[in-house]
Amino acid sequence: MEHELGHVLVVGAGQMGGGIAQVVAASGRRVSLHDPYPGATGRALETMARSLAKLAEKGGPEPADVLERVSAVTELVPADLMIEAVVEDADVKADVFRQADAVLPPEGILASNTSSIPIGTLAAATGRPDRVIGMHFFNPVPILKLVEVISSLLTSAETTARVRSFATDTLGKRVIASPDRAGFVVNALLIPYLLSAVRMLESGFASAEDIDSGMVIGCAHPLGPLALTDLIGLDTTQAVAESLYEEFKEPHLATPPLLSRMVQAGLLGRKSGQGFYSYKAA
Ligand SMILES: NC(=O)c1ccc[n+]([C@@H]2O[C@H](COP(=O)([O-])OP(=O)(O)OC[C@H]3O[C@@H](n4cnc5c(N)ncnc54)[C@H](O)[C@@H]3O)[C@@H](O)[C@H]2O)c1
Question: In sequence order, what are the residues at sequence separation of 6 or more whose Cβ sits closer than 8 angstroms to the Cβ of residue 251?
Answer without folding.
Answer: none
